[in-house]
Amino acid sequence: MCFTGNKRTGMTSVTDLANPPEGAERVFGDRLPLAIRFAQLLAEHGVVRGLIGPREVDRIWDRHVLNSAVVSELLPEGWRVIDVGSGAGLPGIPLAIARPDLEVVLLEPMARRVAWLQDAARELDLPVSIVRGRAEEAAVRDRLAGSDATTARAVAPLARLAEWSLPLVRPGGLMVALKGASAAEEITRDAVAVRKAGGVRCELVSCGAEVLDVPTTVVVVERGDVARGRDGGRRRRKDR
């Protein structure tokens, strides 16, 4: 195990994080202890390993863990989800904790962050796949194409994210991008680029209104049938 020591990085301690917000149990159910442990790992090691800023420690639950996990309400059962530019494991690890039915792949190009993801997955005993690479690389596309959805959080502007992510998604699948206050502006600005990348519908939604004071803002883009030049429809992936 690569996690050692008990680093305190801010006002919030590991003990404090063992008392999550009331809504956390609704999101994670009987897997809440795993979510607590992940929050503690971020507090203990996230700042030192360059995953979160020092001021983020006090906001781990609402800004990182719950903010990520609530997008699970957009994902049907059994989907394969590629977390593009996973970094600290956000939103991929909270999604995998909240929804063990999902097949989650954490895609990350940086070696030190891949090491963190491997350590965290091992510590939490999560059956996620971890792939080192970039979404735009041919080898990555060959390996991960045909997935049901991608997720991304603070990775790139919408146009670039669509160019990277939509080729990994099957027709009818979704690109789920966690965004901030500029989301509506990005949708308007990047509409042409998103369509060029294969997006046929682009929708601004809020997730987690029942558990978060500030719901998560998400841009959802559906991939069309690019080869045939038409809408692919929201078809459920067949069980493998």
From TrEMBL:
Binding residues annotated for S-adenosyl-L-methionine, in chain numbering: G85, L90, A135, E136, R153
EC number annotated for this UniProt entry: 2.1.1.-
Catalytic EC class: transferase
Taxonomy, superkingdom: Bacteria
InterPro entries (UniProt xref): rRNA_ssu_MeTfrase_G, SAM-dependent_MTases_sf
A Pfam family hit: GidB
Assigned keywords, A-Z: Cytoplasm, Methyltransferase, rRNA processing, S-adenosyl-L-methionine, Transferase
Localization annotation: Cytoplasm
Membership in a protein family: Belongs to the methyltransferase superfamily. RNA methyltransferase RsmG family.
Function: Specifically methylates the N7 position of a guanine in 16S rRNA.
Alphabetical list of PANTHER family matching this protein: S-ADENOSYL-L-METHIONINE-DEPENDENT METHYLTRANSFERASES SUPERFAMILY PROTEIN
Designated name of the protein: Ribosomal RNA small subunit methyltransferase G
Gene symbol of the encoding locus: rsmG
